[in-house]
Amino acid sequence: GAGVSQSPSNKVTEKGKDVELRCDPISGHTALYWYRQRLGQGLEFLIYFQGNSAPDKSGLPSDRFSAERTGESVSTLTIQRTQQEDSAVYLCASSRRTRRTEAFFGQGTRLTVV
Amino acid sequence: TQLLEQSPQFLSIQEGENLTVYCNSSSVFSSLQWYRQEPGEGPVLLVTVVTGGEVKKLKRLTFQFGDARKDSSLHITAAQPGDTGLYLCAGAEPDDYKLSFGAGTTVTVRA
Fold it and tell me: Shortest Cα distance from B98 to chain A (angstroms)?
């Protein structure tokens, strides 16, 4: 596609349920990033993929959070047993692996846990 | 600990004033980018600087990359309300080009 696509754009879930957030990166972009952004705050790094491996998953806040990527394509961020503090916008970005490494972001998924 | 430290965290100025946002690190980057994020949107790339000492201008915005490729600044001249947003810097690490983002500077320009 022309840009990074994230789905769903909005998700309301009950506390304790599992959710899956999807990211379709730009074709040919080997690097993929997931970030969390709480209201009025900056980006909180979650995980970085290079191809389908995740050399840096240091930002995942707990073992309830996991992510996977199929080849150099779609990535899924899964949050199990959601808690209210998981409510935030989850942003995905992709980039080429070059010196310039310019990231392109999706519109984000707004997750609300009630 | 953030690899890139941005300052200030918040900045509120009157229309027509100038402002500067700083992005500092003890690490060397192969390139550095600045992004702007408006409410409800994802961050959008403004500029990429690659060469130490490089200066780039984008209308009223001036971006500078430090000589040692460890820091950068963003200067806005005669700020307008449309400049309001979250400004983020990001550096690409030399080994694998992984991007690291600063925490961001929230700029509010009052009419």
Answer: 8
